Amino acid sequence: MKKNMVALAVTAAFALPAFAQSSITLYGVIDEGINYTSNAGDKSAYQLESGYAQGSRWGLKGSEDLGSGLKAIFDLENGFDVNSGGLQEGARIFGRQAFVGLTAANYGTLTFGRQYDSVVDYLAPTTANGNWGGYLLSHPYDNDNTDNSFRVNNTVKYMSPSFAGLQFGGTYSFSNETGFANNRTYSLGGQYTNGGLLVGAAYLDANNPGLTTDGSIATDDANFISERLRIFGGGINYTFGAATVGFAYSNTNVGQPSATDTSVYVGAITPPNGGTLTALKFQNFEVNGKYQFTPTFFVGVQYVYTAATMDATSGNENPKYHTFGLMADYNLSKRTDFYFQAAYQKVAGDKTDTVLDDAYIPGAAGASSSSNQVTVRAAIRHQF
Question: pLDDT tens digit string along 333-353?
Answer without folding.
Answer: 999 999 999 999 999 999 999
